[in-house]
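Section 3.1: Structural characterization of target chains.
Under the original work plan, the team committed to producing a structural model for every single-chain target entering the pipeline before any wet-lab resources were allocated. The record below documents one such target. The sequence was received from the expression subgroup and is listed exactly as submitted; it comprises 370 residues.
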Amino acid sequence: MPADDLGASARDDGLSPAARRLYAYAVDRRAFTAEEACAALGARAGTAITELAAAHLLQRAPGTGPERWSAVAPRAAAARALAPLALLVRETHDEMDRLRGRLEELVPAYEAGAARRDPSGSGHLELVTDLGAVRGLIAELAADTACELLTSQPGGGRPAASLEESIGRDEALLERGVRMRTVYQHTARYSRPTAAYVERVTALGAQVRTVGDGLMRMLVFDGHTGLMEVPDRSGAALVVREPNVVHFMKGAFERSWVPAEPFPLTVGPEAARSLTVELRRTIVRLLAEGLEDKVIARRLGMSQRTCQRHIAGIMRAVGATSRFQAGYLLSAAGADTGSEEAGGAGAEGTETESAAAESAEAESAAAGPA
């Protein structure tokens, strides 16, 4: 391609090199004529004048005589160029508000009819199976939340994509004064994306704690609407508006919240050993109940490989040669054996760090509508 043609081609930002040279020429002068520009920059200056005028970067200078041009500040040009779009956005928002208002006028009639049609209250439960619809519903409920959002998130660390999706929404909630409490499992402490998210939201006033086991995935908005996971239906959620069921969900959250521990932003060696002790005690209990490795791993929010490493250490501690024998011995020995075994986990403290790194494997399984 000839050099002259290359110089005339438009840049990705929409202004050609010729137009950019002309703008640099214009800002050094109070005003100039097209003839002066062509003499200084070449024949393409005339086309560049038209291009810059269309972009509101040049304007006709006042005065009599030959037509003269002067440069316009880029911010002023942007304001003029965006004014029609800003007006369109305002009009669109106004129309959205009017439409929402017209439709919401029908809510009382709908709810009254639903109550007469369904006095048992079963209509207060709605199954949403599309993940995109669940996410949209969460965003809508969060936007309407005025007082408190409760979140219970089992499954270890949350996937980075889920955290990126929720951080803006959660920061907006906190900035407008909504109280936000979240419970994770202990294994979430080892997830760097989760820890980074917790650091951002706690700086704005959110409270985050962790527990070992016993969580159900759910959200409760202002104490009147809840979302809970649907077993064996990934991406699905049950929307709960029945007051008694929502009250039960709040109670379940509070029972998890009270014994939970604050989420630390860093996990030192002592904290890691303490966490390993508690995790192994929980594994002892679940082994004694006869649960399979994959079920225990899912309950505790860790990878199956990490769970199996812990189970191997427990088997060595109780002298078992098989998983079945370990379960029998632990069941027969009761809680005392579990405490002794867990207390001996410090000998394998270095295992905690590698297990923590592997907890990231479980984050993909933690992805859910909440």
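The chain is about 55% helix and 10% strand.
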